[in-house]
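Researcher: We're reviewing a set of sequences before deciding which ones to prioritize for further study. For each one, I'd like a predicted 3D structure that I can look through quickly. This is Acetolactate synthase 3 regulatory subunit domain protein. If possible, include the structure in token form so it fits the rest of the review sheet.
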Amino acid sequence: MSNMIHIQIDRADGSLQRLIGLVERRGFEIHGMSMTDFHTGMGGDWRTLTLNVASRDGTRCVDNLGRQIDRLFGVRRVEDTASANAA
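Model: Here's the predicted structure for Acetolactate synthase 3 regulatory subunit domain protein, in token form for your review sheet.
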């Protein structure tokens, strides 16, 4: 089963590598990704990403992955559709 995770992250060197590496190390596969860049012109540049992820073995919880992503340096906001639909 795949889940969508929406992430706001700073546009900084290595930010996407850190994010993708974390997702893969935590036992998830990325099935799709879309990204939009935002530029404020005052140092407030960020990206909005939507990841379609699935657990490799079916035992991983996307809620835990969202909390781990939220602790990454430069992440501004994380929301997964499973938690949003449950609320």
